Amino acid sequence: MNLPPRELNFAPCVVIPVFNHPYRIVGLVARLRDYGLPCILVDDGSEASCAQLLDRIAAEQTQVILLRLPQNAGKGAAVCQGLELASREGYTHALQVDADGQHDLDDVPKFIACAQQNPTAVISGWRSYDAMPPSRRSGRKLTDFWVCVNTWSRSIKDSMCGYRLYPLVPTMRLLARKKIGTRMDFDTDILVRLYWQGLAVENIPTKILYQDDIPSHFDIIKDNVRISWMHTRLFFGMLPRIPALVQRHFFNNRPA
Question: What Cα–Cα distance (Å) separates residue 7 from each residue in 12, 48, 117, 157, 239?
Fold first, then answer.
């Protein structure tokens, strides 16, 4: 499947944070390159075997850049550094894809086409609750509730999905001003703050290919504490924004 024709002012790439996920990364990069998308691999302090594999991918594949972090800094930190490199390289948009192979790459053309039609919006993956393991469903529902509270909106359907396309100019503006969560709190934190900054969020229904043989780096205690603290920070950050958020909510929902 070919991607839609690109416009002169639309130059997307893919950012892939990698931390000890060698299992499907070769096929994942090859598939993205088949779509014609340049890839930025961010090695977030992986062990030697994974690091060597990433070296080989970058050497053998065209338009693949490898950015190596000296030690593990967290998914959020890796994505942010990848986005910053993408901006410096002249790309206008960056599609965030996880390295574990759980994102359905058949949906890549949908993300690209939606971004072309909405170049200043964040294009966010939207997973079905029904397809989600019960152990993840409750945490997702709780986060969805707090995101609605902190945005005064239901515009964000799934803030925890890491399958997402960012417009780089406004994203770089945010990263220059605010420190964003560096680990599993990243995806929700940056999306809410981009919404506060005035960006629209377009939601793309997508499947997540959950696989038991792929190890998770989610720390059930530390990451839940980080996420709870993130919701607290966002709540207090939302309070002075209430007038603007209410105005935006009613403007967006006003009958045509």
Answer: 10, 40, 11, 28, 40
Q: How far apart are CA 183 and CA 207, in angstroms?
A: 23
Q: Are residues 78 and 191 in contact, defined by beta-carbon separation less than 8 angstroms?
A: no
DSSP 25: H
225, 153 Cβ separation under 8 angstroms: no
Distance CA 46, CA 194 (A): 29
Exposure of 172 by Cβ count < 10 A (0-12 exposed, 13-18 middle, 19+ buried)?
middle
In this predicted structure, what is the pLDDT of residue 211? 67
Low-confidence ranges of the chain (pLDDT < 50): 1, 4-5, 256
pLDDT tens digits, one per residue of 122-133 = 999 998 766 666
Specify the pTM: 0.89
Per-residue model confidence (pLDDT) at position 101 = 86
DSSP state of 66: E
- Give the integer Cα–Cα distance in Å for 115 and 22: 29
Q: Are the C-beta atoms of residues 123 and 216 closer than 8 Å to each other?
A: no
φ, ψ at 164 (rounded to 5°): -160, 145
The pLDDT of residue 255 is: 52
Q: How far apart are CA 42 and CA 214, in angstroms?
A: 19
State the residue for tokens 């309070």. 239
Contacts by residues 225-228 (CB-CB < 8 Å, ≥ 24 positions apart): 226/181, 226/183, 226/184, 226/185, 227/139, 227/143, 227/184, 227/185, 227/188
**Which residues, at least 6 apart from 194, have a Cβ–Cβ distance to it below 8 Å?**
122, 166, 170, 171, 174, 201
pLDDT at 127: 84
